């Protein structure tokens, strides 16, 4: 009699949803760089399908040498892949991702585990859940903070002092309305010098603390086609930075708000849940429309401290005309497009919104444009690369100090 131990049966039962997400995170974050046809036929509604997910899991399992040889042999000679053990096991993995709340398919009820992809067309688009986006954001943030070498908690300092919160080490005479955060040493010194009978309200000394405030941020991502041309994927690193920043703000700065926009021929706001799967396209760079969108988004967010973080690699090459038509000129720095873009920067300055630009290219006229934007809005400009952009963005966000006058 032969005894079969199920523990040693081939299969993927040991893989959790988190393990699977780890294996396919590059697939989920793809920006279109791996698809050469996407560079010439932009489809803004493009997103991963069930068939894409199947292929990504298959590739990941092959790279990890997890597939038994007999399964591969069966798949190689099968008339229909749906009849093979390999296909059925990968479908179980897809179901596991759905059951554990990482993906959702259109027309399914997320409150009903086990309901889902069976019978769904392979062309059905996937939807990432909040849990999935949080996973990708956490992974991105860990990688970026690892590059910094430290984590920096806290809140954003302002130029103001106030009683309470975090002590600054400075003091001031008590004024009516101050919180009774007395500095015992200085108050006792006045008591000894004047005596209890002569002590007045002005002799009470309160300890000052740093006043912190919430920061509202709009992250603008350039998704024109230059972000995946020239043999380099610049858009995926930009998305990783945005996801990491979103996770940092949610976990370390709960009072802050962050929203995301993309700009190409035009501009649009992107919900956080759709950000990982956004791909490049259409072609041109409508920076003015992106800034106009960011200003509109910030007006809807309460609070006084506001900023725009813009990640781009190209000069403005498109403009939305009053008629709604898109005027495009990819050759040189068009004076009409430049003037309208600088106008949006000036309006941001009047609204107290600095623009911090992270530039992924080095063309002289592009650098001159960024310098002008920075001067107008009193923001900052960083010349960086896809490899280290996250380090610059997080250092700027975590360490920005406001001088006290």
UniProtKB/TrEMBL annotation:
Family annotation (InterPro entries): vWFA_dom_sf
The name this protein goes by in its record: von Willebrand factor type A domain protein
């Amino acid at each position: 009699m032969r005894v079969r131990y199920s523990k040693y049966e081939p299969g993927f039962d040991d893989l959790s949803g988190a393990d699977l997400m780890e294996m396919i995170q590059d697939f989920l974050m793809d920006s279109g760089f791996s698809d050469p046809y996407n560079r010439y036929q932009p489809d803004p509604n493009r997103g991963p399908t069930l068939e894409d997910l199947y292929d990504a899991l298959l590739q990941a399992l092959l790279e990890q040498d997890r597939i038994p040889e007999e399964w591969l042999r069966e798949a190689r000679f099968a008339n229909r892949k749906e009849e093979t053990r390999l296909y059925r096991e990968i479908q179980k993995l897809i179901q596991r991702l759905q059951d554990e709340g990482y993906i959702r398919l259109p027309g399914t009820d997320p409150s009903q585990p086990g309901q889902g992809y069976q019978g769904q067309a392979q062309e059905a688009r996937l939807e990432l859940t909040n849990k999935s986006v949080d996973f990708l954001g956490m992974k991105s943030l860990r990688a970026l903070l690892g590059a910094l070498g430290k984590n920096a908690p806290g809140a954003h300092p302002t130029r103001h002092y106030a009683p309470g919160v975090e002590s600054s080490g400075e003091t001031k005479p008590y004024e009516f309305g101050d919180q009774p955060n007395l500095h015992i040493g200085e108050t006792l010194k006045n008591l000894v010098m004047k005596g209890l009978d002569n002590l007045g309200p002005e002799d009470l000394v309160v300890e000052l603390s740093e006043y912190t405030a919430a920061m509202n941020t709009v992250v603008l991502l350039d998704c024109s086609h230059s972000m995946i041309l020239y043999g380099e994927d610049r858009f995926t690193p930009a998305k990783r930075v945005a996801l990491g920043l979103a996770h940092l703000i949610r976990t370390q700065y709960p009072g802050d708000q962050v929203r995301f926009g993309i700009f190409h021929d035009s501009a649009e706001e992107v919900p956080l849940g759709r950000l990982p799967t956004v791909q490049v396209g259409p072609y041109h760079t409508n920076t003015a429309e992106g800034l106009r969108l960011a200003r509109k988004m910030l007006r809807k967010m309460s609070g006084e401290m506001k900023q725009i973080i813009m990640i781009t690699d190209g000069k403005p090459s498109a403009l939305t005309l009053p008629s709604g038509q898109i005027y495009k000129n990819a050759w040189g720095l068009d004076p009409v497009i430049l003037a309208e873009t600088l106008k949006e920067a000036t309006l941001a300055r009047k609204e107290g919104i600095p623009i911090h630009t992270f530039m992924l290219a080095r063309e002289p006229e592009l650098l001159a444009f960024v310098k002008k934007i920075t001067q107008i809005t009193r923001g900052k400009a960083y010349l960086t690369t896809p490899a280290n952009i996250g380090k610059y963005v997080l250092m700027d966000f975590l360490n920005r100090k406001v001088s006290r006058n």
